[in-house]
Design a protein that fits this description.
Its main location: membrane. Pfam families: TauE (PF01925). By secondary structure, the chain is mainly alpha-helical. The chain has 10 helices and no strands.
Length: 263
């Protein structure tokens, strides 16, 4: 990674990265998937491949704050179903990064995100016609064959997208919404999921040269802005009803996908 570029940021570029870090904190405690906006900002200010390594520690800081906030609401059976498939997706994503250039990575992730958003909207409309998921916030029939296939499919996609572009949030958001999670169960489950997955990605990113001492120094400064974003998200989530919450998650996914497809 050409880390020398990190020391030639203009004031506006640093301000953009600081805002993106604040959005990371907000997304982790309020609207999961909104950090695709942060991904796009980092990729615009920094070299696209290098930006994924610099963003990763910032995301982990947000994950830690989210776990501290929603740790009581995680649904561990769902997590255990996802992890094996996610691990396979991370390996595939690592191999993909070895040969793929920035344009291929951006286009691939953007297409996947838009497809996931479309599928989720279609499924939510079906669910509205058949009756809303139960209010207890537990997922749907994950133990069925169809549920296991869905978990594996989303898990591989989530692992792949989180490895190549830190864009696994929208994919997992689509899975958790389709499984019938309510707000707190959604946020608690995704908090533990991404903390574990993002920490496991560190050696892969370091091995690819995407993380080094200079990038970590920039991260140490940017993490400061994650905290107010997380506090803002914690305040906002109690004021967002379930239907609006779902719409915001889907909208953030669509915006992130479109941003990745733009030149």
């Amino acid at each position: 990674m050409d880390t020398m570029t990190l020391w030639h940021l203009t004031g506006w570029e640093f301000a953009a990265l600081a805002f993106a870090a604040l959005v990371v904190g907000f997304s982790k405690t309020a609207v999961s998937g909104a950090n695709t906006v942060s991904l796009a900002i980092f990729a615009a200010v920094l070299p696209a491949r290098a930006s994924t390594g610099i963003l990763l520690p910032v995301l982990i800081a947000g994950d830690i704050l989210a776990v501290l906030t929603y740790r009581r609401h995680a649904h561990w059976p769902t997590l255990w179903r996802l992890f094996p498939a996610v691990g396979a997706g991370v390996v595939v994503g690592t191999v993909f990064l070895v040969w793929a250039d920035d344009a291929v990575v951006r286009t691939s992730i953007g297409v996947i995100l838009l497809l996931m958003a479309g599928v989720t909207v279609w499924r939510r409309r079906q669910a509205d016609g058949e009756g809303r998921p139960d209010a207890a916030g537990q997922p749907g029939a994950g133990g069925t064959r169809a549920g296991r296939v869905k978990a594996r499919s989303y898990g591989v996609l989530g692992g792949f997208t989180t490895m190549v572009a830190n864009a696994g949030g929208p994919v997992m958001s689509m899975y958790l919404l389709s499984a019938g999670f309510r707000k707190l169960g959604f946020l608690g489950t995704s908090a533990f999921f991404f903390l574990i997955v993002n920490v496991s990605k560190l050696p892969f990113s370091a091995g690819l040269g995407l993380i080094d001492g200079r990038s970590l120094l920039l991260d140490a400064v940017l993490v400061v802005f994650v905290v107010p974003g997380a506090l803002l998200g914690k305040w906002a989530v109690t004021r967002i009803d379930q239907r609006l919450f779902e719409r915001l998650v889907i909208a953030a996914t669509v915006v992130g996908g479109l941003q990745l497809l733009l030149p």
